[in-house]
Amino acid sequence: MSGSRPRPGRRAPRPGGATANGSLYERYKDALRRGHVAALRGRNEAAVDAYGEAASIAPDRALPHASIGGILVKMDRLDEAAAAYDRALALAPRDEGALRGLADVHVRGDRRTEAAAVLDRLADSLAAAGRVADATDAARRALELAESRPRRQQVEALVGRLREAASGDEAAERALDQALRVLEPAAPEPVIAEPEPEPEPETESAEAHDVDAEPEGPDADRASAEVAEALATDEGGPEQEAAAEADAEPEPEPEPEAEPEPEPIAEPAGLGIALGAAAEAALHAGDLASAHDGLLAAARAHRRAGRLSAAVDACYLAIGLAPSDPDLHFLLAELYLDRGWNGQAVDKLLLLGRLADLDDDAAVRARLCELVSARLADEPRVAGLCA
Asked: Per the count of CB atoms within 10 A, which of 43, 219, 274, 296 is most buried?
């Protein structure tokens, strides 16, 4: 019998199967990349088409549907956005991006009760993942949108857990403070009545007791005129100056004023925009390396200027050029932390950890541990990255 039959219990390999799967995944990534780039350039219809293509290539993935939802929100097509988020959640019921997006759609549509219900789901999911600060934020927002006793009890329970972990964790302390403001609104300040003014004691005529009173009559008029003239001209004769210097006590010499510290030179507000424009020009010219470097420089300039949204946009555009660049992912993680998006930052750091393992990159691992220690020391999801 020529050839061999596959052993029972194992499928025969399909010719070209691995290559076909690899090609399919590359097509999926390419479609997502085109969707991201189109979205960042404001080409919303093109972004929806690209994300739709990614969804057709990988129908089991939630990300393309959630991305479509985000674009439709920008286009103010809220009902279609809600449907896209629902499709994403049907595939991944705990998808954080889809839950946040759907809640935002309901808030924009003034459907507060529905938004609160979605935030309840998000809070439960985040709490189950050990992300207590993020869960508290979601539960607090749900309570603000639609007050109910179960929601208040949920926030109180999360606050109790958060108190144990809030010390030294800026994000946890901020979430705790905001939750307590909702649970315990500040009492109105008491109105303090001002005391009535006491009547002034009656005094005898100043004319009778003021021994230093100015003389009246022609002498007084002449003295007043001389004083007025001296004040008006700021001049006096030599004799008057000598007498004044003899009578006056010597004034202490003024202490030299400390020289003010030079203020830091502000970075030009448009530097990030200029760098981004140069990167765009390099991209159109086909110089991908310069475009990538320019986008990273633009993102850092935007961050220094406090324009975090523009910095994130520049990073997303750079992802299409170098999706595996560690510098890019580190910058994105720091931007997520700057904006308080701890969940996205953690996901990004976990991705960096996998990249470091695949490439056996000790430098990336060291940078990863440094960032985790500085800004996410109490986050359980990344605790094992540096163990």
From this structure: 296
Q: Which of 110, 137, 164 is at the close of a domain?
A: 110
**Going by C-beta distance under 8 Å and a sequence separation of 6 or more, which residues neighbour residue 277?**
none
CA angle 251, 252, 254 (to 5 degrees): 115
139 class by beta-carbon count within 10 Å (0-12 exposed, 13-18 middle, 19+ buried): buried
Pick from 350, 292, 307, 294: nearest CA to 129: 350
Within this chain, do residues 96 and 32 fall inside the same structural domain, yes or no? Answer: yes
Which helix (H) or strand (E) covers residue 198, if one does? none
Look at residue 245 and tell me if it is in a domain. Answer: no
- Pairwise CA distance, residues 266 & 263, whole Å: 8
pLDDT tens track for 75-122:
999 999 999 999 999 999 999 889 989 999 999 899 999 999 999 999
> pTM of the full predicted structure?
0.49
Instruction: Show the beta-strand stretches assigned E in 245-310.
Output: none
Structural domain of residue 167, as residue ranges?
126-185
* Residue 371 within a domain: yes
151 and 142 in contact (C-beta within 8 Å)?
yes
Asked if residue 117 is part of any domain, the answer here is no
